[in-house]
Amino acid sequence: MNRFMEVLENILMPIAEKLNNNRHLTALRDGFLIALPLIIFGSILVVIANFPFLDQLIGEDAYAAYQAALGPASASTLSIMGLFVIIGIGYKLTASYGVEALYGGVVALAGFIILTPQTFEGVEGVIPTSTLGAEGMFVGILTAFLAAELYRYFVQKNLTIKMPAGVPEAVSRSFSALIPIALTLSVFLAIRILFSLTPFDSAQNFIYTVLQEPLTALGSGLPATIIAVLMIQIFWFFGLHGQILVNSVFDPIWYALNEQNLSAFQAGEELPNVVTKQFIDTFIVGMGGSGMTLAIVLWLFMLARSKQAKQLGKVGGPPGFFNVNEPIIFGLPIIMNPLILIPWLVAPVVIAVITYVTMSIGLVPKPAGIIVPWTTPIFLSGFLATGNAWQGAVLQLFNLAVVFIIWFPFLRILDRQYFRNEVEAEKETTNADNKQKSG
Amino acid sequence: MNILLACSAGMSTSLLVSKMKEAADEQGVQAEIWAAAQDKAPEEIKKADVLLIGPQMRFMKKKFGKVADEQGIPLDIIDAVAYGRVDGKAVLDHAMKLLNEQK
């Protein structure tokens, strides 16, 4: 068993290193991080704009006016999150080469707009906001990569205008960016023209059709989701932060699916996707942390006999409420513990299936596209993520009970083991004391 | 003595920070201890004398190692057992041992 674990760790560790230290994946993750405060602001406003029963309380007309007044807040942040992600990725990727990063962000944004259709239903000079949100997610990410790479390449090739000494630094810096930016954006203009000659009409449309649509269709399915969840669990089993590793691959898909639901939710239409960013963050991770360890904390708190397990329940309780669970993962321990491997892998898959099915058949509303921070406590997170629906919180309660039952026998065995060890250790010390006394 | 802890979001290490501060107070050790998310850590390293990484982020050692080398400060992975127990004293001892070895 130990040999086997060692072999597996030797396989997983380099994967973790590659995933987390890959320059582009790091820029992608940090790009989303930059957009996050804006996304959360927009989400909060969506929640406030959709308070339950408010329409019955103040009347439909007043409610419509109220929603219209708050609408621009999320429309300018959450609904066009692609823009901020693009700037973030462009900035972070350029910075990773040690090149003036702000220009990397700006040039990525400009490159993206160049590739974006600038007419809508025959009206010139408009950019459809859908291309700045869900639809433009993939093309935006690819654009940001390409723009930042081209820009830093031209800068590093020294294709810049050198100013004579004595010119103020700010002035010379603005000129030094000129040629790399001009070259980069020329490439994007050429790409735009090339695509306008194809049946796809625009690069946006091309990437959406050949890449984003198939990938998100795959990612929205249950099989891909189960694979993602299992990968998270397996990495964690070896004490590696599975969530951020899997996120760096799946986030673009999950966010794109999320945005689709958001626009449908705001338009009052049927929500297209079950699997979204919030499906994972609220209904899988948001139950005490990766592996849904809140159920474990509850068990330890209520039923443990051994001092070790009781103590762990106390240490793991408060952070577990906010979905921080390293004390449980390293303290139980979950890592490298063959006894708990079964519930560790089975429970999240069971919960993923339950959540998927109950949402698919309409028993529980699908996630509304609101981004709920992963530290939001259970029940509140389920309520918010489903667009202020109590069924979301009830589903979490039900899932919590299921996880509790799955873990029950395994925790009992573990606790008894600890308890026996403690009793034996106590016996030994009393024996030693007695010997000393008699001797 | 400035001790920096790094993990993915700086959440779980911040649990440890408060325990380490308690341990430092008990021992009468003067120490500045704080936690940082992994994207902020390379910047924060400049203010630190020693860097400790959460075991779940041990795949960051190589990357942070480069920055720590440039700053000439030691770094190590926090022991998984001490991390699970949120054992402030053990991790504080670990940090002080690293600093002493360097001297």
Automatic annotation (TrEMBL), chain A:
Domain of life: Bacteria
GO biological processes: carbohydrate derivative transport; phosphoenolpyruvate-dependent sugar phosphotransferase system
Chief site of localization: membrane
Compartments, record wording: Cell membrane
Residue span(s) of domain PTS EIIC type-3: 8-410
Keyword Membrane listed: yes
Transmembrane segments annotated in the record for this chain: 32-53, 65-89, 101-120, 132-154, 175-195, 215-238, 283-304, 328-356, 393-411
GO CC term (a single one): plasma membrane
Pfam families associated with the record: PTS_EIIC
Topology term for the membrane: Multi-pass membrane protein
Any one GO MF annotation of this record: protein-N(PI)-phosphohistidine-sugar phosphotransferase activity
The entry's keywords: Cell membrane, Membrane, Sugar transport, Transmembrane, Transmembrane helix, Transport
Function statement: The phosphoenolpyruvate-dependent sugar phosphotransferase system (PTS), a major carbohydrate active -transport system, catalyzes the phosphorylation of incoming sugar substrates concomitant with their translocation across the cell membrane.
Protein's name in the database: Permease IIC component
Organism: Marinococcus halophilus
TrEMBL record, chain B:
Gene3D superfamilies linked to this entry: 3.40.50.2300
Keyword line: Kinase, Phosphoprotein, Phosphotransferase system, Sugar transport, Transferase, Transport
Location of Phosphocysteine modifications: C7
One Gene Ontology molecular-function label: protein-N(PI)-phosphohistidine-sugar phosphotransferase activity
Metal-binding recorded as keyword: no
Classification via InterPro entries: PTS_EIIB-like_sf (IPR036095), PTS_EIIB_2/3 (IPR003501), PTS_EIIB_3 (IPR013012), PTS_sugar-specific_EIIB (IPR051819)
UniProt KW Kinase keyword: yes
Domain PTS EIIB type-3, residue spans: 1-103
GO BP term, pick one: phosphoenolpyruvate-dependent sugar phosphotransferase system
Protein name as annotated: PTS system oligo-beta-mannoside-specific EIIB component
Organism of provenance: Marinococcus halophilus
